[in-house]
Amino acid sequence: ISEPLPKVKQAMLLKTPRNTPEGLERLKSHHYLNSILGKREVPGIGYEGVFLTKDGHIAEGVVSNIFWVKKGKIYTPSVSRGILNGITRGFVIELLKKSKLSFFEGFYFKEDLYSADEVFITNSIQEIVSIKAVDSYEYKSESRVTTQLQLLYGKYINKRLSAIKEMNERT
Questions:
Q1: For residue 125, what is the DSSP state?
Q2: Contact at 8 Å (CB) between 47 and 9?
Q3: Cα-Cα end-to-end distance for the chain
Q4: What pLDDT sits at residue 68?
């Protein structure tokens, strides 16, 4: 039996830079080696490594996309930075739009992460995970936006599962 995946992690910026995209859009199957190198830098399961591009822009986590909140606004790197346009990332962006929460995609530096009020990562396995610190920068404020998004995500999943269950009971 494996241990459950943490819903709160620490993050660290990696020395290994995010490799550039193979073409106009990142192909997941073409950048595993870079992720393996990045994964070797993190101390264990309670950590997520965060890649920077060769230009020093925030890219993505080893197995995640990254978001942060500052003064009620949500930020995430642009896919034009060469990041994988994750399924859960896209779903969270749709949740942000539906909730009318301000969010911005762009080119950001590590200082933007360090000065954030809260940080979270997304991926299909762990869904939405709160980050309590990046390197030595700890986030002391409550993760209000992260918690709100986790609740909205959970409601959607439960609604979908109920619909599937109802459909199966009819057949």
A1: T
A2: yes
A3: 34
A4: 98
